[in-house]
Design a protein that fits this description.
3-stranded antiparallel beta sheet; binds carboxymethyl coenzyme *A; mainly alpha; 6 strands; about 425 residues; globular; about 5% strand
Length: about 425
């Protein structure tokens, strides 16, 4: 695997020593130093936030943050967004190769045959308050799925893992729309397997039993593209959470529920909702400078939401496609959204500002996805849920990849800085 070594001079158990560590080269990306043997020398590495840590090997997705490049199994995201669709990309992530025409048909057929959810899940839904955040509902319902589908819970079986993948990709939009309809007090709509993946989601969101919803092909395509753009992003916080939960041998539904929980935060998938809140708060172009100043002020916790990324130090390629989709959706619907004008102005000002230039802070995918989703009629609380639907094939592909190879339970160590050993003091003496 390697003929390169990194040498580390360190004090090992009281003696100066030179340790040799293997260095691996991937297809792309920085070389990786294998530090696993360090623990035998009584040493650990320290990397809070995993800034310099490769937690696994993966063949699924590659990001070149400096170039602003995103590849799924080698294919650039721009080409996939232009020429492929969400279910085809889901197949690619799961299998590592694009499907043949027959494989694609079979995959779509299999996914659409799993769109219904068990009736009993609706009873669990009723336990939630009507005003519960749909991410809380989705997390709960996905976790509950592990108590329904006992026929595919053997994680050592590849066919079981495949069935679970199909179920999760197929049922996620159904559960998401159920959560939305429940909040409205409307009956959940039965999935329509004659529609596309994106079209069916729009149908379940907006149709009612008394009034069918005519799905616009342009909007269904835009919905599909939004899912596609979120399909995978290598070892991000939620995917790493899914892998970590999976490494203990936990069942797949609880692993995905853990991923949903990690996605919810505003620094990750919650950013799309936070962008619109921020644009609301800014309210007018004349107030942009004030918010830029706040984002730069280290004493102010305010950050420009939808800006910056741990890996991208150049434009997020998904943001470019999303901006184009946003423009198409607004044109199709004839919407002149003042928030888009504020967003464009904000982007223009930030990209000229030395604070953002020096820190390589560019718009990320969430900067334009919120405005697009809003134009599609998706309520703000559902934005992160849409992200979760899109990310499901990525999560399940990483879980599947991990279980298909040798793996160990994820168990990081720590730099302990607490009190030294001391004796217990009885309550009466404290
Ligand atoms: N606004 C203002 N300053 C920022 C921002 C921002 N959005 N993002 C980073 N910075 C500054 C940060 O204060 C720091 O400055 P300094 O070096 O002077 O201390 C520097 O840039 C580096 O930031 P960091 O917090 O160390 O970077 P990170 O890699 O830990 O965080 C991030 C990445 C995405 C959490 C962060 O950029 C952020 O909070 N962005 C806003 C939230 C957001 O849009 N998240 C969606 C990410 S894309 C969707 C997804 O894949 O989840």
């Amino acid at each position: 695997m390697t003929d390169k070594l990194a040498r580390l001079n360190a004090n090992v158990k009281g003696q100066e020593a030179e340790l040799e560590l293997p260095v691996y080269k991937g297809t792309y990306g920085p070389d990786v130093i294998d530090v696993r043997a360090l623990t035998k020398s009584g040493l650990l590495t320290y990397d809070p936030g995993f800034v310099s840590t490769a937690s696994c090997q993966s063949r699924i997705t590659f990001i070149d943050g400096d170039k602003g490049q995103l590849l799924h199994c080698g294919y650039p995201i721009e080409q996939l967004a232009e020429q492929s669709d969400f279910l085809e990309v889901s197949y690619l992530l799961l299998h590592g190769e694009l499907p043949s025409a027959r494989e694609k048909d079979n995959f779509i057929h299999a996914v659409t045959r799993h769109t219904l959810v068990h009736e009993q899940l609706a009873e669990i839904l009723k336990g939630f308050y009507r005003d519960a955040h749909p991410m809380a509902v989705l997390c709960g319902l996905v976790s509950a799925m592990s108590s329904f589908y006992h026929d595919s819970l053997d994680i050592s079986s590849a066919p079981h893992r495949e069935k679970t993948a199909l179920r999760l990709i197929a049922k996620m939009p159904t559960l998401a729309a159920m959560a939305y309809k429940y909040a409205l007090g409307q009956p959940a709509m039965t999935p329509r397997n004659d529609l596309s993946y994106g079209g069916n989601f729009l149908h379940m969101m907006f149709a009612t039993p008394c009034e069918p919803y005519k799905v616009s092909p342009t909007l269904a395509k835009a919905m599909d593209k939004i899912f596609l753009l979120h399909a995978d992003h290598e070892q991000n916080a939620s995917t790493s959470t899914v892998r970590m939960a999976g490494s203990s041998g936990a069942n797949p539904f609880s692993c995905i529920a853990a991923g949903i929980a990690a996605l919810w935060g505003p620094a990750h998938g919650g950013a799309n909702e936070a962008v619109l809140k921020m644009l609301d708060e800014i309210g007018d172009e004349s107030r942009i400078d004030h918010y830029i100043a706040r984002a730069k002020d280290k004493k102010d916790p305010f950050r420009l939401m939808g800006f910056g990324h741990r890996v991208y130090k150049n434009f997020d390629p998904r943001a470019r496609v999303m901006m184009q989709t946003c423009n198409e959706v607004l044109a199709e619907l004839g919407i002149d959204d003042p928030q888009l004008k504020i967003a464009k102005k904000l982007e223009e000002i930030a990209l000229r500002d030395s604070y953002f230039i020096e820190r390589n802070l560019y718009p990320n995918v969430d900067f334009y996805s919120g405005i697009t989703l809003k134009a599609l009629g998706i309520p703000r609380e559902m934005f992160t849920v849409v992200f979760a639907i899109g990310r499901t094939p990525g999560w399940i592909s990483h879980w599947h990849e991990m279980l298909s190879e040798d793996y160990r339970i994820s168990r990081p160590r720590q730099l302990y800085t607490g009190p030294a050993r001391r004796d217990f003091v009885p309550l009466t003496e404290r």
